[in-house]
Amino acid sequence: MDGGCRGPRARRPGDSAAADGGAPPAWASVIGAAPARPCGWPPARWRAVVKVVIPGGTGQVGTILDRALTARGHDVVVLTRAPRGDRQVYWDGTTPGDWVREIDGSDVVINLAGRSVSCRYTAENLEAMMNSRVESARVVGDAIAAAARPPRVWLQMSTATIYAHRFDAANDERDGLLGGDEHDVPGYWAYSVRIARNWEAAQERAVTPHTRKVALRSAMVMSPDRGGVFDVLSWLVRLGLGGPVAGGRQYVSWIHDHDFVRVVQFLIEREDLAGAVNVAAPEPLPQREFIRHLRTAWRMPVGLPATSGMAEIGAFALRSDTELLLKSRRVVPGRLAEAGFTFDHPRWRAAAADLTSRRRRGGR
Ligand SMILES: NC(=O)c1ccc[n+]([C@@H]2O[C@H](COP(=O)([O-])OP(=O)(O)OC[C@H]3O[C@@H](n4cnc5c(N)ncnc54)[C@H](OP(=O)(O)O)[C@@H]3O)[C@@H](O)[C@H]2O)c1
């Protein structure tokens, strides 16, 4: 894997100290081989094994990160309401507890906690979606602020849904339009934007002078794991239901799971980057093309088109919501591109082929 910018390789037992006298950062070993291009590494005294705490790390995204980071020898601790195994620690997502000891002395915190958005958007579910995100970000911020040895960086999950529903131009971090004021969409879509804004605001409010803060405005993370969004879309396609939805003009933003991990690594390494960062492949595409490429990857010749009414029935049957299908998410990675990050999987057609072939081989 080629990161957009690489640091020196991780220090291994027997290595001599780096020229600057500090241990080389262990993130190089997360990325992979020796550096192609040093990127101004600070003379930071990273430990050889990096401790990463992932609140809400039991879900789809957490599993991807846990797997990738653990495989590279890092010490990953997941905070969960239902711990299983010795690297999972109990927390409730709202109040301090023994879990704060995991944050104190860790190197990196990646907070993913939040009630799943794949549900009917009832008032009760919307409130749970809001509270679980804002409260968990607040309590993680409190734990970092109170830590004697705070982590170097806190990556806080956010979402590409923060941007406006639009077709005319792509949303980057500088010129993109935040959503909530669109007139031509159902009123409750504004609530999803409010969740995202409040989620980011909870991180911004935290006073963590020794910890860099980054908000990950992530598009859908596509991985071949069971239960993820790619799995659900693939299931529909293989049933012959992978056609344009409501005409299919709405843009789909996405990111391949390997690139997602690489972006996370990149943002951890790049100590000059803070604030909101779009985490999406550079070429979002209209849903009708997106689903056509997925059909091709599955060798499925037909895909039934659906009207928005049919999508509503389908979403109801799947206990989900049509906003996930109908909102035009045209989001591009402006800051990552400026910072020199290069994607291994920039185009959906090739990414879909890779994901389906991995899926055929049994996942991962
Ligand atoms: N998947 C994507 O493509 C994508 C894209 C953009 C943004 N995101 C956001 O990234 C985060 C992780 O995504 P994901 O797909 O991994 O989500 P997920 O599979 O639904 O997992 C989210 C995790 O949050 C925890 N959680 C759920 N309700 C909670 C509550 N009330 N209080 C505290 N923790 C709670 C759960 O952990 P326990 O049940 O173990 O406590 C769960 O493992 C989510 O916030 C999601 O909205 C995801």
TrEMBL record:
Kindly give the SUPFAM superfamilies that the UniProt entry links to this protein: NAD(P)-binding Rossmann-fold domains
Domain NAD-dependent epimerase/dehydratase: from-to ranges: 52-279
Q: Which residues form the DUF1731 domain?
A: 323-355
Q: Where is this region: Disordered?
A: 1-23
InterPro entries noted in UniProt: DUF1731, Epimerase_deHydtase, NAD(P)-bd_dom_sf, SDR39U1
Q: Which Gene3D superfamilies does the UniProt record give?
A: NAD(P)-binding Rossmann-like Domain
Q: Which family does it belong to?
A: Belongs to the NAD(P)-dependent epimerase/dehydratase family. SDR39U1 subfamily.
Cross-referenced NCBIfam families? yfcH
Its protein name is: DUF1731 domain-containing protein
> Native species of this protein?
Actinoplanes teichomyceticus
Question: What taxonomic ancestry is recorded?
Answer: Bacteria, Bacillati, Actinomycetota, Actinomycetes, Micromonosporales
